[in-house]
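Work Package 3 committed the consortium to producing structural models of liganded targets before the mid-term review. Because experimental data for this complex are still outstanding, the team generated a predictive model from sequence and the ligand definition alone, so that downstream docking and mutagenesis planning could proceed in parallel. The input record is reproduced below exactly as it was submitted to the modelling pipeline, together with the SMILES string for copper (II) ion.
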Amino acid sequence: MRALLLLAIGLLAVTAVAVPVSATNRTFVLSASNTRWLPSGPITVAPGDNVTFIVYNNDSIAHSFIIEDYGIDIVPWVGPGVSRSVTITAGAVGTGDIYCGITGHRSAMTVEFIVSTGGTPPAKTPGPEMILVAIVLFALVAAIRFSRRK
Ligand SMILES: [Cu+2]
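The resulting structure, written out as C-alpha cells with the ligand in place, is given here.
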C-alpha cells in the first residue's frame, strides 16, 4: 500500500515537471529618436515566444523597420510622430538585427535580436507549474511522514 502510494505520487511529480511551458507573450517598445533606437540594447527572447514590437517615431524624419530573418520590412516605416506595431513568433536560436533600412541609418539604428533558450528572465512570481511542483513535494513529504508512523 505504501509503495503504491509513493509510486502514484512519483508519477504525479513526473507529470507535473513534464507540463510543457506555453509560448510567452513579450512586448518591446522601440522609439526612434535622433536617428537612434531607444532603448538600443539587445532584445533577447526564447524560441516560440510571441514578440510584439511597438515602434514610435519620435524623430522629425521617416524611418523604416526591418527584422532580419523574419520577413518584416516596412519601408518607409512611418513619418514623424506615428507609431505602429508588429508581432512575430521567435524562431530557432540565433542572433539577427533589427534596423532601419534607410540609406545611412543602419549603422546607428541597429538593435541586436537574440533568440536564446536561456534568454527569458525568470518570472517574478511563481507560475502555475512551480505551485503544482510545490504541492506535489509537500504531498510527498506528508506521505513519507505518514507511512513512518505505522
Ligand atoms: Cu532611419
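Reviewers should note the following from the model. Residues 35, 63, 100, 102, 105, 109 surround copper (II) ion (CB under 6 Å). These observations will guide the Year 2 experiments.
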